[in-house]
């Protein structure tokens, strides 16, 4: 039986991460990785990367990955702890911040905040990409696929859903094994 303190820890940690979600939810993955893999040792680096990849294939918002990671780490109660920890504080803060920004959109403070946070958000997204790729850098097929997809996304308007589907088909066929 998993102790209740573990679920409380998951809730609190994911709540704190969601509060720091600057640059979108995917930018919080390094914090989740640090807790689930390095601190609590609930997942291996490979399990984390595969779980995130699976979560990305699900329809809906990126924050569903929190629930998928919680499920992979501790089952249904883990999913409940991580998803509610992610959703509740973030939702309350988002509503309050949205109201403030809408009412003060021409304020120097709001404009300065947006300008200053853009580089932070980009840096967090690069850290996420590094973490997701670092677990699989020895598999040259996966690295090649990542480079090809990156170039396609960067240089074309190719539908992302088709790239996701292609990756799923190639993975199911064992191309990356």
UniProtKB/TrEMBL annotation:
It holds the Pfam family Chromate_transp. It is found in: Cell membrane. It is a multi-pass membrane protein. InterPro entries: CHR_Transporter (IPR052518), Chromate_transpt (IPR003370). The chain crosses the membrane at residues 7-29, 68-95, 116-133, 158-176. One of its GO terms (cellular component) is plasma membrane. The keyword RNA-binding does not apply. The keyword 4Fe-4S does not apply. GO terms for molecular function: chromate transmembrane transporter activity. It comes from the Bacteria. Keywords: Cell membrane, Membrane, Transmembrane, Transmembrane helix. Belongs to the chromate ion transporter (CHR) (TC 2.A.51) family. This is Chromate transporter. It comes from Parasutterella muris.
